[in-house]
Every structure is written in C-alpha cells, then in structure tokens.
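Shift notes (night). Ran Cation/H+ exchanger transmembrane domain-containing protein while the centrifuge was going.
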Amino acid sequence: MALDVLQFSLVSLLLKEKLYVNEVVLGTGFGIIIGPFVANVFAPRSWGSLNNTITLEVMRIVLVIGLFAAGVELPRSYMKRHAKGLLVMVVPTMAFGWVVVAAIIHVLFPKLDYISALCIAACLTPTDPVTCAAITRGKFAIKHVPEEIRHILLAEAAANDGLAYPFLAISIYLTVETSVKTAIGKWFLVGWLYQVILGAVLGAVLGYMFSKLMQISHSHRFIDRESYIAQYLALSVFTMGVASTIGADDLLAAFAAGCAISWDGRFHEQTEDDAFASVIDYVLNCCCFIYIGAWLPFHAYDSPEYGITPSKLVILVIAIVVLRRIPFIMAVYKFVPEITCWQEALFSGHFGPMGVSAVFVSTLARTRLPTPEDPPADQAQFLAATIQTIVSFVVLGSIIIHGLSIPFFNVGPREDLRVSIGQDEC
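Came back to this:
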C-alpha cells in the first residue's frame, strides 16, 4: 500500500492537473488490481470475523480526519452565515433521497421489504466528504468550479455525513424491534437526542476550548507553528475518542470541532500555508480507497439466490445518480442563495458522491444486524447478507461517475463552471 502511495506521488501532477484524475479513482483502481479479484496480494475480506471491525475503524479514522479538515477549511463562521442554504441542502435533501433510493431498491430487489430498503438507502444518503474534498480541491477545481459552489458542497457533505446515523438508526430499530413504538422511542432518544445533538455540542465545545487554549498559548509564545499543525490531527482523534467512548456521533463531533476551532479564522490563518495537513489527508485518502478497491466483493455481484444480478446493480446506480438529489435540488434551489441558476443546481444535484461514508455506515449496520445463515432465516438476516453487496457496487459506480465529473466541465474553451453552464442565464 505504501508503494502505491509512492507511485501516486511520482505522477501526481500528470494525473491530477493534466489528465484530471484524482486519488479517489486511482486509489480504487490500484486496490482492485492488488485485491483478490486480480493479483490477490491484499484481501481484507480474507480476515474472517475481523474484516468488519477493521473496515469500520479504518473508515472511521479517515472520515473523522476528513470531516475535521472540512470544518477547518471552510471560511470563518461559515455555518452561521450560510445556515439558510445549508438547512435546505442537508435535511430535506437527505430525507428525499432516503425515501426515493429505498423505493428504487425495493422495486429492483423485491425480496427486501421497504424497511430493509430504507436501511440500505440510509447508507447511500450522505454525500461523502472525503470524495467531495478530493474532487473539489486542487488547481483544476479552483479554476473551474465557483467558490460558493465548492464551499456549499463541502459543508453539506460534512454536515450530512454525521446525520446519517438517525436515518440508519430508525431503519435498524424497525428491523430488529418487535414494537414500532419502541423503535421510534429509541430512535428519538438515542438516535437524535443522544447521538446527534450531544455529538454536535460535544464537538463544538471541545473545538472552542482548544481554540481559546491555543490562542492563550500563542499569545504567551508557548506554542510554535509546528504544534499548531499537530493539533490538526490530535484534536480530531481526541474528539473521535471522547465521542465514541460515550456513544455520541463521532463524525458530527469531529466536524463541529473543526468548525469551532476555526470559527474566528485564526487557526486557519496559522495552518493554511503549511502543506503537512494536506499531505496527511492525501496519504490517508489514497490508502483508504486502495483498501476499498481491495474490499469490493466482486464475487457477490452475481448472486441470483438473493435476487442480485449485475444488470440490476447497474440500473440501481443509474437510477440513484439521476433521482437521489437532482429532482429535489432543482425544485428548491431558489431557496439556496449560494446557487444562482438552474445549471448550478443541476451540477450541485449531480454532485453527491458516495464513498467512504457509505462503506462506513453499511459496515456499522452490518455489525448491528444478526449473522446471516445460509439461507437467511428472516428479513434481518437477509438484509445482513445483502447490504454490503448492494452498497459497495453503488460506491464503485459513484467513484467512477463522480470522480470524473469535474473534468466533464472542461469540454471546450470556457474558463469556469459559471461560464460553461451559461453565465448569461445565471
């Protein structure tokens, strides 16, 4: 894996700035090549019972650091100043995509009831912040995608990633609980009040406290620039540890901590010219997508006994890309000040990549479902046997489609996205 990252570095300028191919697509491709489907050098699924645990924690660490970085990289007080647009882009858009994707899954795979389809859809609801950051940062994206669009997409991806928990929780509770009343009660108390709200408050408090402590240390010359950069990793991991220990939403806590520590812009000013954090983020992203490429269960994509066939999976990917976000954002974009015309709304609706977060949530769901028998004894076991197969194929399709989305807008001599989609009409 280290050799693959070294190879990326040797040709990164050619690949990213000339061919417009980012580490998400390349990492996944390398993972497939070295994985069991081709060379069989690296096979995460051969680790038996440890597979899900290791996969869950690898995805968790990458997501936490990526979400903290997203919070830091956003302009000062961004979440407050752009609350109106974010409110529309996050909660109702997620809810719309959740029920629509569940309906598509239920139609294509009728052996899954609608509640089970909602559980799988919850894994595919959040926009992946790691893929989003990898695609929207860099010279090409900066030149060709308007700043407001890049910021709102990154903030939305980071915010809705932590909010995937409630969507997953209600689906799991309805699947494993015998009483609907009990399921809804646990969803409200545990899924929303404890995990989401406590996670957000905890992250914000930790980020604010560290911000003040670092300002005091800096004013007394107790801290140097290198130590500022060290906090980039230390605080994100510390926040994850505290939130995970008490059972709160660690992803939302990490994003809230990143926003809070850079709320006044000082932390960002101290770290923006240092490439160390970006290098760490880049290396983690490369390793993560190499892992995902090797983790993909190609053997399971043709499983007629579960009603899963390659043709159905391809139809599912196309339907999700077209229907999951585009119709809703096209309908409500006038309520999002950052989106100025229908062409930008179309781009923003299309730009909803699924990657690390989908793998993480599906693996989390798998750990909370019963171990499936052969054949599955009930709907919960059937869901456990199929959830990662369906989610992983959609992730693969999204990596290919969304990973190549930005270069698509470079067709022709136009300078940036606003020009290419029609500045006059905006």
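The chain has a mean pLDDT of 83. The two ends are 45 Å apart (CA to CA).
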